[in-house]
Amino acid sequence: MPHYNRTKSFARLRQEIRQNNEGKCSRVDVLFASRTRKSRKVVNALTLEKNTLAVDEIKKLKEQRDQGLNDKTDEQIF
Predict the structure, then answer these.
(1) Consecutive H or E run containing 47
(2) Which residue, of 3, 38, 42, 56, has the fewest CB within 10 Å?
(3) Residue 42 has pLDDT above 60, yes or no
């Protein structure tokens, strides 16, 4: 999955996420934020479909963990 950060570093992105989420930031949060286009413009439909499927699967695993249905860490989900 390509990232859409342009010139913004991952460290700066992580810091912004921490400011918005009361100091909490996981690798999954950075993955979602860096793989989401601001303009929602579609460049390649096939790539977009693959990215969407991967993001949906990660979100599903994270929600299951929050509900207590699995005990996977962010590293295992990532």
Answers:
(1) helix 45-66
(2) 38
(3) no
Q: In whole angstroms, what is the distance from residue 61 CA to residue 66 CA?
A: 9
Q: Which residue has the tokens 């921490």?
A: 18
Cα torsion through 13, 8, 56, 53, rounded to 10:
-160
Task: Specify the higher pLDDT residue, 64 or 78.
Answer: 64
Q: Model pTM?
A: 0.52
The span from the CA of 24 to the CA of 68, in Å, is 19
Rounded Cα distance between 78 and 19, Å, is: 22
| 60: DSSP letter | H
pLDDT value of position 19: 92
